[in-house]
Amino acid sequence: MKNLILTTAALALTAGMAMADTVRMGTEGAYPPYNFINDAGEIDGFERELGDELCKRAELDCEWVKNDWDSIIPNLVSGNYDTIAAGMSITDERDEVIDFTQDYFPPTASAYVATSDAADVTGGVVAAQTSTIQAGHVAESGATLVEFATPEETIAAVRNGEADAVLADRDYLAPLVEESGGELLFIGDPVPLGGGIGMGLRESDGELRGKFDAAITSMKADGSLNEMLKKWFGEETATYGTDGTVVTN
Asked: CA distances (Å), 55 to each of 77, 119, 199, in order?
């Protein structure tokens, strides 16, 4: 559920796909468990499994394209691929440049992680991935923001003392904290950011958006989306009722 901060209006190009035979699905491939590259060198994760199922239900022939996070929206708009499925939260700012399906992952909180519970997240140095609204939140909080191109680098900055803490999606941070053997810990209160995760598309691709929206609705209604959410994020993750409303477990 990462949240890209758009810094230019020059992205408002219109490269319509006109419902091409093959729909190219863009993702970062570096944000487990949402999306990552597996040992076989293939795109994997929750969004790969979900995207493949959505394409099947929408009767679309899809292929996956890996793209770095900091250029993922510009390359969608310019036509390098046709969708973004990359843990991207739906925000008003993004919606001015691209379009979104309905959410396929409920809104969840971001969180701070540090190596000490004494870390100062309001006046110290806090790391965040560049071009995210976590970075925007840190910049407005009074802390000193240090930005990195990848989420792995933000964690490394905390571990090597370059930053006092990191702010990122809690779902991304939780397994890292658990696997750290006590080196990393959550501090402070959760930070609610974003409005759920959706698939990004060009504004000119309304027909394609409609197909994916219908597929997402069907997965919410039959419970299969909830099964995927629990598979990848655990039994305690928020899910959807059959009417699409969010259910907090």
From this structure: 20, 45, 12
Q: Which residues pair with 76 in a beta bridge?
A: none
Cα dihedral 93, 95, 98, 104, rounded to 10, equals 120
**Whether residue 54 is found in the same domain as residue 113:** no
Reduced to 3 states (helix: H, G, I; strand: E, B; else coil), residue 247 is: strand
Structure tokens at 237: 């993750």
Question: In the listed set 175, 192, 209, which residue is the last one of a domain according to the structure?
Answer: 192
Query: Is the separation of the CB atoms in 197 and 154 below 8 Å?
Result: no
For residue 5, the SS3 value is coil
Angle value at C-alpha 190, between 184 and 191, nearest 5 degrees: 120
CATH of the domain at 132: 3.40.190.10
Residue-wise pLDDT tens for the chain (249 aa)?
555 544 333 343 434 444 457 999 999 999 999 999 999 999 999 999 999 999 999 999 999 999 999 999 999 999 999 999 999 989 888 999 999 999 999 987 899 999 999 999 999 999 999 988 899 899 999 999 999 999 999 999 999 999 999 999 999 999 999 999 999 999 999 998 878 999 999 999 999 999 999 999 999 999 999 999 999 999 989 899 999 998 876
| Tokens at 122, concatenated | 């309001």
